[in-house]
Design a protein that fits this description.
Blueprint lengths: L1 H12 L3 H10 L10 E6 L2 E7 L4 E6 L7 H13 L3 E6 H6 L1 H16 L8
Parallel strand pairs: 3-4
Antiparallel strand pairs: 1-2, 2-3
Amino acid sequence: MRESTERARALRQTSTRVETLIWAQLRDRRLGGFKFRRQRPVGRYYADFACIEQRLIVELDGEPHDWNFAYDSARDRRLMRDGYRVLRVRNEDVQRDLQGVLDMILNALHEQEAPSHTPSP
């Protein structure tokens, strides 16, 4: 447990400019009153941003040549098996249209709040 806490702390201290930009909008329940955590350990992975109560993970992705598609895909499948939804956002989109990204995150959070089925009469 101590190792994961230290690693999460190190990841927070080396945040990218884009992570800092979006974190300023997510922290302190600034987005729709939802609580987010940054560089949160989730299983054996670290989520860039996680809203635990809504089981939503927001991952920021850099340049396409920086992506490890096989790893990201396996990671996303594992997180989904554990009951999380993973929303991947490109760094470029955060820089170009921060409000649009925030709206997308908020929509995903509200989708989770809606009942998943209609009760039978």
